[in-house]
Design brief:
The chain has 151 residues and is mainly alpha-helical. It has a single domain, classed as Orthogonal Bundle (Arc Repressor Mutant, subunit A). Helices cover 58% and strands 5% of the residues. A two-stranded antiparallel sheet has the order 1-2.
Length: 151
């Protein structure tokens, strides 16, 4: 059942943060936590799932962190939502095939259609679109500040 859970919201925030604040070094989870206020326990779990799903790449070590696995225009909000839904759907009682006849034959099919329409829309929104929105809204990018173009 599609709903905007904290985990989904945190995962979208984290990926957009990585894309928006990326500089020459990988983005560290502590920086995401500082900027977005995402609790580390949720953040690390989401980041690891996103690495396994090839949305992010993880770099180990003291200067390690996370980068996007693909160009930000090639990662959609729908990609992120699907990864996080896999974590949540196993424990969601609404995903199970139980309920009344009315639920099984009318309500659940209607809800699945609405979810499908929402996922189509989320697939149309790229991480790049969200970064551009952040830029237009005047959100400062720490990544751009750390880039040095002097020769």
């Amino acid at each position: 059942m599609l709903r905007l859970s904290k985990k989904i919201l945190f995962a979208i925030e984290a990926v957009v943060d990585i894309a928006y604040h990326a500089g020459s070094q990988p983005v560290q989870s502590r920086d995401i936590t500082r900027r977005q206020g995402i609790p580390r326990r949720y953040l690390e779990q989401a980041l690891q799932q996103l690495v396994r799903a090839n949305v992010l790449t993880g770099i180990r070590g003291p200067r390690g962190g996370y980068n996007l696995a693909r160009e930000r225009r090639r990662i959609s909000a729908g990609d992120i939502v699907r990864v996080m839904r896999q974590l949540e759907s196993a424990n969601d009682p609404l995903e199970q095939d139980n309920g009344s006849e009315l639920t099984r034959t009318v309500i659940r099919p209607m809800w699945q259609e609405v979810q499908s329409e929402m996922m189509v829309r989320l697939d149309e929104i790229s991480v790049d679109d969200l970064c551009q929105d952040a830029n237009k809204a005047g959100v400062d990018s720490e990544g751009r500040q750390s880039l040095d173009f002097t020769i």
